[in-house]
Design goal:
The chain has helices at about 20-30, 85-90, 95-100, 110-115, 125-135, 230-235, 270-280, 305-310, 380-385, 430-445, and strands at about 40, 70-80, 110, 135-140, 155-160, 165, 170-175, 195-200, 205-210, 245-250, 255, 260-270, 285-295, 305, 330-335, 345-355, 365-370, 415-420, 450-455, 465-470. With about 475 residues, it is of the alpha+beta class. The protein is elongated and about 85 Å long.
Length: about 475
């Protein structure tokens, strides 16, 4: 159920514990907040976020319980009494594998049986082995019962990769359908810091990260609970009971620089993490930043482009163009300058200029930036190194001198606008839920809170559900 939230932080408590999901994220992506990018995509195809199936929307109460009881069995299949056919085995495996694994129609390993029984979920033996090791697979020895108690708990066990399955055995896939947000909080009644929630539903959320707060804790410690990941269980509402594949605790899908404030997208379910990760990789999340730069920034005619050209390049100008020009003729600046050997593209324009003592040329400018790519410090580097106007207060790129006198409030950069496809309501099953609850969801989104949901008709006539968020700039932007 979608809500726009300005609610007070939830005063529940969290024991200190190591989160393997958090550890895996940090190790896999070498997250180091000291040299963080404005925007870095996390690969949601990582096995931690892979979802076995998103097809059934059912409740935990109606599903057989797994091992432990917080898990629910979402799929099962029984090996035929006659076993697999020799042809099935020969079509799926090489002669070498058949010999090496000692496969025959009535005696195969668990990974082999998974591949034969669930070809859509397990395309390779490697995937089947991984899911078995991650305790996602159960085996029921002997015939199943009927009804809700079809699985005899005394005959149901977690598999080992080396286990063999025989005719009449049943393999089951289980997934967690409950959260433990409260377990992720420690005994403090208050969250570590104020983290406003701009948009939230059962599947994902968008929060407003304060300046000076890191997204994830440092790889080697040093920030304690002063990071967004640790704060999320306090400020987000657990998904409704029955939501498939709820994450143990919510997690940011990407990250923004410690010194940057603004909108940060977080997943609450594993399928949402997968889908949001795909959107970031394919550059489908449309972001806008606002910054103040140090200097009278130039807008050369030779690097000027129209909104139409920018849109054709894959940068979204959208309906948020506030200029008096038409969308086709509105003027933007293009920076297409590689950073560390990688393509980096930024579209920007100046909104207004005003005088400021000790600034370059005695002037600063408010600029709107729309990155197409998300390279390391892309916006900061493009402004400083290409446009020769670093962000005001950016000690890493301002060049020193008089600029040192303008550093007391950090640099001025805010991710204040984002639009993206809903990660669940555009799936086949999600569309059913959207159609059934659309009026309720739209009715709960109050105007003026910075978030809205729209439907956009596609070329094939289908409607795409989009989420848009916009926030006010931090107070320091208006202190001049």
């Amino acid at each position: 159920m979608a809500t726009i939230s300005n609610k007070p932080n939830n005063p529940n408590k969290k024991p200190k514990m190591n989160d393997p999901l958090d550890d895996q994220l940090r190790e896999e992506y070498d997250i180091d907040e000291q040299d963080e990018e404005e925007e870095i995509d996390i690969d949601a195809n990582d096995p931690e976020f892979e979802e076995l199936d998103q097809a059934a929307i059912i409740t935990a109460e109606t599903l057989p319980k797994g091992i432990p009881d917080v898990n629910s069995i979402i799929h099962h299949a029984t090996i035929p009494q006659s076993g697999f056919t020799q042809l099935q085995i020969e079509n799926a495996f090489s002669a070498h594998d058949i010999e090496r694994l000692k496969l025959n129609p009535d005696n195969v390993t668990v990974p082999v049986a998974l591949l034969l029984l669930f070809p859509d979920q397990f395309a390779t033996l490697t995937k089947a082995r991984k899911e078995s090791r991650r305790k996602k697979i159960l085996i029921h020895r002997g015939p199943l019962g009927e009804g809700e108690d079809m699985f005899d708990r005394e005959k149901l066990v977690l598999v080992r990769v080396i286990d063999r399955v025989l005719p009449g055995d049943t393999l089951a896939i289980q997934t967690r359908m409950t959260h433990n947000y409260s377990e992720c909080k420690n005994h403090d009644s208050e969250p570590p810091f104020h983290l406003p929630v701009v948009y939230e539903d059962d599947y994902f959320a968008i929060v407003n990260k304060p300046e000076g707060i890191v997204t994830f804790s440092h790889k080697h410690g040093g920030f304690g609970r002063q990071n967004v990941k640790s704060c999320l269980p306090w400020v987000l509402t657990p998904p409704e009971a029955g939501t498939i594949s709820v994450m143990r605790r919510p997690s940011p899908v990407h990250r923004i620089d410690r010194g940057t404030s603004g909108l940060l997208i977080c997943a609450k379910t594993k399928p949402a993490m997968v889908e949001l990760g795909r959107m970031f990789r394919e550059r489908k999340v449309k972001k806008s930043y606002t910054a103040i730069v140090n200097g009278d920034i130039l807008e050369p005619k030779e690097s000027s482009i129209t909104s139409k050209v920018a849109t054709d390049m894959g940068v979204c100008i959208g309906n948020d163009d506030t200029s008096n020009d038409s969308k086709e003729e509105a003027s933007w600046q293009l920076i297409d300058e590689e950073l560390e050997g990688q393509s980096a593209v930024t579209i920007w324009r100046a909104i207004r200029r005003w005088p400021l003592e000790n600034a370059r040329n005695g002037t600063v400018a408010l600029v709107e930036l729309k990155p197409k790519t998300g390279r390391y410090h892309q916006l900061r580097k493009h402004m400083a190194l290409v446009s020769n106007c670093p962000l005001l207060g950016d000690k890493a790129y301002d060049g020193g001198g008089l600029a040192r006198t303008l550093r007391d409030k950090g640099f001025y950069l805010c991710s204040n606008r984002v639009s993206l496809e809903h990660p669940y309501y555009n799936t086949p099953e999600g569309r059913k839920e959207w159609n059934a609850k659309k009026k309720t969801i739209l009715g709960e989104i109050a105007s003026g809170n910075g978030a809205r949901i729209t439907e956009e008709e596609q070329e094939d006539g289908t409607l795409l559900v989009l989420v848009h968020c916009e926030i006010d700039l931090p107070a320091k932007f208006s202190e001049f």
